[in-house]
Amino acid sequence: MKKIAVFTSGGDSPGMNACVRAVVRTGIYHQLDVYSIKYGYDGMINGHIKKMQSQSVSNILQRGGTILKSARSEEFRTKEGRKKAFEELSKHGIEGLVAIGGDGTFTGAKIFYEEFGIPTVGCPGTIDNDIYGTDYTIGFDTAVNTALEAIDKIRDTAAAHDRIFFVEVMGRDSGYIAIECGIGGGAELVMVPETTTTIHDVVKSLKGLRKSKTSSIVVVAEGDEEGGAADIMERVKSEFKGEDKEFKVTTLGHIQRGGSPTAKDRILGSRSGMAAVEGLINGQSNCMAGIINDQVVYTPFEECITKSKPLKEEYLRLQELLSI
């Protein structure tokens, strides 16, 4: 293998640039020609391919987002679109790919490999920490710390006015951001997709805390089965009629995706990028380079896509125990 290319796809996450940097410099260290593909699979189809040098990735380690951009590609979902992408890669003699992203990225890479045989190794880039085959995903730690900083500030104003705040964080299918923010931010209640918490449960819990606490924080993962934080807040509020209690809601949204990555995400991105390139060199393909128990592990894309990553039972117990 002499030529490889790297791209980012799907939602951006802090630490992706550290991963891109590691891919480029690891490849150059091993005397490979390394190319970048801008705008993910869409850029692959449209030929946004450029040869990289070591200095091409200077001064990006501390930046959020991704210098390679990201875009959805409906065309890549078609056989004709993937054929165009293969033809563009062939023009440059590219023999291997490093795909930085999540489930959707890996699904595309798996299909592309099965159809055209270009070896691909993935790096887990998503703030949700919902990918099987790695303890943590690139961007998760930064997202948690960003949300936690906001929750700390919300706690100040909640306490000052004796208010109950419902704070919505990202996590459509995974409650990892919510549960870690809940534990780290001292939330009275956390609502996540993995467990069932009814409106009745929330009301009962908040009313039970009135004797010991004058303000409360409820952290809600956006994918909770009861709905978003705003809807949950209104339904809970209706159960407190006649009581002198004020309710507020804050949706943190895409602020969680941005910002300078933490040291943990920079190191994770760097390790994943190096492992992906060296995996390609050593014959790995159609898999993701993850970190489990501080060791590099290559997990087939099929498992990354089809297997779910359960929320740690210890975290759920810890949240319940500490919220009294």
Description:
Helix content is 41%, strand content 18%. By secondary structure, the protein is of the alpha/beta class. The strands form 2 sheets. It has a 7-stranded mixed beta sheet, sandwiched between helices. A 4-stranded parallel beta sheet has the order 7-8-6-9, with helices on both faces. β1, α1 (16-29) and β2 (33-37) form a beta-alpha-beta unit. α1 packs parallel to α9, α5 (140-161) crosses α6 and α6 packs parallel to α11 (313-322). The termini are far apart. The mean pLDDT is 97.
How would the global form be characterised?
elongated
Mind describing the biggest β-sheet?
7 strands, mixed
Mean pLDDT, rounded to whole units? 97
Unreliable sequence segments: none
Structural class: alpha/beta
Specify the helix fraction band: 40-55%
Compute the number of strand runs: 11
Strand order of the largest sheet: 3-2-1-4-5-10-11
Amino-to-carboxy terminus distance? 58 Å
Could you tell me the radius of gyration in angstroms? 22 Å
Number of continuous helical runs? 11
How is the quaternary structure best described?
A: single chain
Give helix and strand order, one letter per element, not per position.
EHEHEHEHEHEHEHEHEHEEHH
Strand content: 15-25%
